[in-house]
Amino acid sequence: MQESGEMYLETILVLSKEKNDVRAIDVGGRMGYSKPSVSRALARLRADGYLSVDGNGYLRLTDKGSEIAEKIYERHHVLSELLTRIGVDPETAVEDACRIEHVISDESFTAIKRHIKQ
Questions:
Q1: Which residues contact 78 (CB under 8 A, 6 or more apart)?
Q2: Which single residue of 13, 34, 67, 97 could bond 79 by disulfide (Cβ 3.0 to 4.6 Å)?
Q3: Shortest CA distance to 109 belongs to which of 67, 80, 69?
């Protein structure tokens, strides 16, 4: 999965925590993308089995999509917390965590989680 797909899944997850019904327009508004860009990306994610769209246009993550979204969401929060703890400005920490969360290895992330919980 590419970084952009992970970002879409994470955004859908976050929006679904804020409100029950999420539509493509909500995703585009949150991410700042055009309707055609969002439509193409969501169609690809749907075709690959990461999300479904009901008859009313509401987006739902599949188990497969939810697994990836939760993983990226957790990484975002843990990395933001770590960066803030070591003195990075909170706004910068969130922006940097957003970039790091997609490339960090599972091994490194697990070590970071262990370190933070100590």
A1: 109, 112, 113, 116
A2: 97
A3: 80
What is the per-residue pLDDT for 1? 65
CATH number for the domain that contains residue 88: 1.10.60.10
Q: What are the mean pLDDT values of the chain's consecutive 10-residue runs (118 residues total)? A: 87 93 94 92 95 93 95 92 93 92 91 83
32 shares its domain with 60:
yes
Q: What is the CATH number of the domain that holds 30?
A: 1.10.10.10
Residues 88 and 63 in one domain: no
Instruction: Report pTM.
Output: 0.84
